[in-house]
Amino acid sequence: MNMRRDFIIGLVLIALCATLPLFIGMRYFITQATLFFIWGIVVLQWNLVLGVGGIFSLAQMALFAVGAYATAMFGYYFEMPMILAMPLAALLTVVVSTLVGLACLRLKGPYVALLTLAVAQVLYLLIVNDTECFTNPPSGCMPLFGGVRGFTRFGDLGFRDLFGSKWYIADYYLGLGLLALAAAFSVAIIRGPMGLAFQALRDNPGCAMARGVSRFKYQLWVFALSAFFTGLAGSFYAVHFAAVGPTAFSFSTLLFLLSMIVVGGMGTMWGPLLGALLLMSADEAMREFGDWRDIGLGLLLAGFVILLPKGVLGSLQALVQRFRAKA
């Protein structure tokens, strides 16, 4: 019943998003909506690890960056078509995520957070400190990982040639399609037997393991599987913006995305998307206030944590359950 309801909600949301460019054709709105799709994929998958699996991992932006960098390097060094580079980059992200999972999933709580954050920082330092020339194109010395300037001109999906000045609308629909796939995967995990195992391990690991649920196996599964769409989001980000650099590891972006999950409702199906919509809208509304924007977002987040600790959707669900119990 819950799975059917979620799929109906998903289909309605996809239909609404599919019609938006017909009514709002502004390029800025379309590109911001495309960015929302990218962040939506990331927070949906991060919610599987953090909210459903109960693994306090901070490696999500590092996995996102792996997908972005792998795509750029496949295109730049091997002249690989982006339609092939993107899924390959996503698979490489799964491999990296599995290795990280093997290293950290025997740990618990803050130790997982510290280790995954350390992995992200090591990858960042590896890239920015890479100054030795690997190739010498006309633009100058090019380190293996792009160094501080990153990669550009590594290829595209051909939408600019096919659609001309309206290429960004094609990117919009591709982003929507990827988000739909990521959401369907999340529904299948959360509402299926695997989701029940994840939630049991999160809420009462002792009882779950006593009943034969392997904590290591199931948490490694969610860690690895969610990485595919995270890497795919990073890959699409690189192709959409035609550039990738060390900013993909930005700690401020990591905190921004984590806030989306908290505000929307950690562990809920649609809470992360709602949180992404609310925080991106608030960020856009405060764009003209300069440094005050960060202060405003901080106060907004603090207000949600204090007044709605379960997030918007989590609090609504608790309210509905309380009402049903009284009825």
From TrEMBL:
It is found in: Cell membrane. It is a multi-pass membrane protein. Keywords: Cell membrane, Membrane, Transmembrane, Transmembrane helix. InterPro entries: ABC_transp_permease, LivM-like. Its main location: membrane. It comes from the Bacteria. The chain crosses the membrane at residues 7-30, 36-56, 61-78, 84-104, 111-128, 172-190, 220-243, 255-279, 299-320. Pfam families: BPD_transp_2. Signal peptide: none annotated. PANTHER family: HIGH-AFFINITY BRANCHED-CHAIN AMINO ACID TRANSPORT SYSTEM PERMEASE (PTHR30482), HIGH-AFFINITY BRANCHED-CHAIN AMINO ACID TRANSPORT SYSTEM PERMEASE PROTEIN LIVM (PTHR30482:SF20). This is Branched-chain amino acid ABC transporter permease. It comes from Dongia rigui.
